[in-house]
C-alpha cells in the first residue's frame, strides 16, 4: 500500500515545477500533498465522528503570524501583514515561506531553539559560556542551508575552545562526561533514550545495558579542560589520546582511554572493557583507536542512510514544532517500542527528507505546505483525541515572545547580547531576563508547559514594559500614534495589527471603543488597551 | 484557617468582582455557604489532611562554597589539621564548637550537629544540586529541589505568596521545581528588604482592576474560537498573580514594620535581613525559605575568611532560633544550616582548605529535632567518619520526617519514570528522640 503511494509520488515528482523546492529528491510541495493524503487515510479518514474531522483552513492573517513566528521567530510587521493581505496571487503562501526562509532571522530563530534543546539539559551553569557561540554557529549554519547531517557531524566530532566553536555545546553541557554525552547525542539526533539502559536492562525497551555502554565507548577520550587566555576564563573540548589510566581503582573510569561498563555488584572495580558498537546498525570499531577516528566513524554511522532514526528524530521534532502535535511525544523519545500517530506519514516524510540529503529548508517547505499545517488552530486540550485535524496552539518560546514585544511596542533590542566571562551576566540583558522567566525546555511536551507567577508579574508590571506602553514617554509607540491617528477606530486597528498581527473583530473594536468612552482620558484608555493586548493569551501563543 | 478568611477578604477587596469570589467559593461545599458560616469542621473535611501539616516549614541557610567543619561546628583543637581555630564551650556541657560561633554556642541547647555527613561529590555545581535535591544531576530527569517538594507537599491552600522563596544567590545549580513544573520553582529574592521583582503595580489598584476587566472582555473572541483552555488557564494565573501582589500577606516582604529591637537582633547584614525575611515568610505560611550566603570556597586564607563569614551567620542564626521559639514557631519549623561539602583536613600551602565531601557537618534545629546533641564523629584529624555516617539520602529522609512528608511518594518525570521524593536512606532517628 505504501509502496504504491511512493510510485504516485514519483509521478508527481516528474510534474513538479517549483525549482526552489527541489533538493535532489522529491519536490517539497508535492510531498506535502502526499502527506495530507496519507494523514487522511491513517489519522482521521473515514470517521463519522465530527470531532475527528479536519477543521477549516486558517485565514491569511492567522497563517502569516503562525508562519513568521515559526520560521523567523517574530510576528509579521504591520507592513508585512498588509502586503500579504493585498496579494492576490494563488501561491502567496508558498512565496511567503520562501521569503522568510531566505531571511537571516530564520537561522537565528532555529539556532536559539536548538540552544534551548541542548542547554536546558546542562549539568552545570558554567556551560552557559558556550551559549552565544552556539547561537552564532547554528544561525550561520542554518542560513547557509547546511544540511542536518553536516550539523550533526559538527556536534559529534567537536573540539576546541567553547568561546570559538559553538558545536562543542553538547559536550560542554555535559561537562565532557562520556556517558552523559552519549545519552544526549542519542536523544537529540536519534530520539532514542538509550540512557534508560545505562543502569539496567529496561523492561519495555529492547536496548540492553551493554548497548548503551558500547555507544559510550565512542566517547571515552573526550574531556572538557579549563583554558586561560589572559583575563578571560574559558573551557575547551579536547581529545585525550595519551596518558595512562588512573591507577586509583576507586575511580576506575576517570582518565581511562577506553570505556568500561561498571559491574553493578562491584562498583569499585574497573568493570568490563567495551568496544565501540553502534546499537542501531551493529557497525563497530576495535579498541585503541584515537578519539578523532571514533567520533568521525560514529558521525558517519549516525547520519548514514541505513540509520532511519536520524531522519525520523529530526522530522518528528520539526513536525511537532510546526503542527503542534508530534507523531511521537515527547519528541525525543521515539524508539522502536513506542507507538506513533500516523506512522506511515512519518516514514514517508523522513524517507524523503533523507532523500533530500537532510536539507533542512526542504523539510520546512514540505511541512508548511501541508493542509495539516495550514488549518485553523485548536488548543491541545480539545484536539487531544485526534491529532492533526487542526494546527495546535503553541505557547511562544521566550525569544519569540521577546521579539513579539519588540514588534508590538516598536522598541529596539539595543545591541547584541553581551559576552562576558561570567555567563550569568548574559542573563542580565532584557532578552536574558525574558529567557530566564519565560524559557522552557522545548523537548518537553508542549501541552505540559505551564505559565508561572513571575511571568504574569513581568508582563503586568515590569517597569521597562510599562514605560514602553506609556503615552507620556517620549518616543513611545503610543506617544506617536495618538497624534498620527486621531480617529479612535483607526488607532484600535493599528494596535491590533502591531500586537496581534490582525484586525480586531467587530466585537473587539466595540469593546475598545466603549472603554475609550468610559475612561474619557484618551491616552489613558489606549494605554489600557495596549496593556491588555500585551497581556492577552493570544499574544503569548501562536495560533 | 486564618489564611482562608484573609484570602476571602482579599479576593473581594482586590478584585471587587463576583467572579473571583465565586471561583473561591466553588471549592467550598454548598451546605456551608447556605448555612452562612465557614466552620472549622468544614475546613477540616475540605482540607483532607492538609491542616495537619499546616504550619510545618523549613528554613534552609545555604552556605555556598562548602564551609569548613573545622572552623564551624567540628573544631579539632590540638591536632595539626585543626589549625589555629580554638574550641569554645557551649550551653550544652561537653559540647564544643569553634570560637567563630559564640552566640550559636550559647544557643546550642536548641540545635543539633551532624558531624558525620558524608558524600562523594566534590564539584560545586554537582554537589550543590545533590544537597538541594538528594540526587545527582542527569540530563534526562530534572529532580526537584527539596524546597519545591515542600511547596508541593505541605503548602497551605490559603497561601497567596509563592510557596518556596530563595533569598540571595542565583543560578540554577540549587535546582528548582524540575519535574514538578514551574509552579514549584523558587521565587527569587535577590536581596531581602525590598519588594520582590515586578510586584509593584505601575498603576493604581483600581486601574489594574479596570485593565483586568478589559483584558477579560477582549479575550472572549479568542476563547470562543480556538483556545478556550489556554484563556481559562491564563486568566487563573493572572488572578493568582494579582491576588498575590494585592494580598495583605505581601507585608511579609516588608521588613520596615518590624520592631527596632528585632531588627537589631538579626543585625543589619544582608544575611541577617534574609533570616528576618525567612521568619516573616514562614510566619505567613510559606513552607520553605532558603537564605543563601556565598563565599565559603576558602582555598586560600581560610582562617580569616571563615571567621568573617561566621561573623555574618552567628548572630542571625542564634537570634532566628530564639525568635522562632518565642513565637511558638520553632517546634514546627526545621532550620538547617549547611553547604555542599566540607573542606580538606590538611591545610594547604596557601593557608586554605580544598573541597572535601568525605566528612562534613550540618546543623539542624527545630521541627521536632531535639537540640543539644551531636550525631556521629570523625577521627582525630577529621579526615574520616568514624561513627554513625549520615549519607545524603539519610539527611533528606530526616527532612521528610521533620516536615511530615512521605519520602516514598512518587512524582512522574516527563519520560514516564516514577521518581521517589527520597531514594533510599533512613532518617536519623536519634535527632527526634
Describe this structure in words.
The complex is a heterodimer of chains A (543) and B (433). Chain A has 543 residues and is mainly α. In chain A, a hairpin with a 2-residue loop joins strand 2 and strand 3. In chain A, the strands form 4 sheets. A 3-stranded antiparallel beta sheet of chain A has the order 1-3-2, with no helix packed on it. A two-stranded antiparallel sheet of chain A has the order 4-5. A two-stranded parallel ribbon of chain A has the order 6-7. Chain A is built from 26 helices and 9 strands. Chain A is globular. Chain B is an alpha/beta fold. Chain B is 38% helix and 15% strand. In chain B, the strands form 5 sheets. Chain B has an 8-stranded mixed beta sheet, sandwiched between helices. In chain B, a hairpin with a 5-residue loop joins strand 15 and strand 16. In chain B, helix 1 packs across helix 11 (228-246). Chain B is globular. The chains are: A mainly alpha (543), B alpha/beta (433). Chains A and B meet through helix 10, strand 6, helix 17, helix 20 and helix 24 of A and helix 9, helix 10 and helix 11 of B.
